[in-house]
Amino acid sequence: MGIRKAAFGVALLGALGPWGGSAVGQESSPTPLFVPPDLGRADLPARVPDVPYVPTPQLVVDEMLALAGVKPGDVLYDLGSGDGRIVVTAAKNLGVRGVGIDINPERIQEAEANARAAGVQDLTEFREEDLFKADFSEATVVTMYLLPSVNDRLKPKLLRELKPGTRIVSHAFDIDGWEPERVVEVDGRTLYLWIVPENPSQVR
Hints:
Elements: H1 2-16, H2 58-68, E1 75-79, H3 85-94, E2 97-102, H4 105-118, E3 124-128, E4 141-144, H5 148-161, E5 167-171, E6 182-186, E7 189-195
Parallel strand pairs: 1-2, 1-4, 2-3, 4-5
Antiparallel strand pairs: 5-7, 6-7
Helix pairs in contact: 2-3, 3-4
């Protein structure tokens, strides 16, 4: 699993470069669900993002929310939120308040535009922040589509700051040393679910 993850991550970065922009092997769709508006040139991120931008297909977004059991009253944080589709979908379909965190200001603008287009701007917030410095301790659900190395670096922060019972769903990559509660396949992609334990020291 570790070799496969590393190879996939290297291939992803090599294909997209530091900024990303289109998915590797992503299904072609004649009518994209989220089309970024013509925003002009945004300010560059404060630093090179840890992860290239690769949108999650809508079918996978829906399954991530279902796997996490997202319901009214939850607070969802999407780490590396891109164009905001996970946060926007949760707000529009489930009435859930959500926060997206992304270091790229262009992605933040796209996400805010998509939230306005969906009429859920009052339920959503998008923050231009570094994942490793951001405060997401209020989350009851965390979603992410990052890279294996980033997941592993985030593990101590997730265990330290999130409340017991918080659900975490990752698209494509697991977290080294933390056994998931469930693993599901959807449309050829793997999703992982973890639940923060009462005693985080149980996770090595």
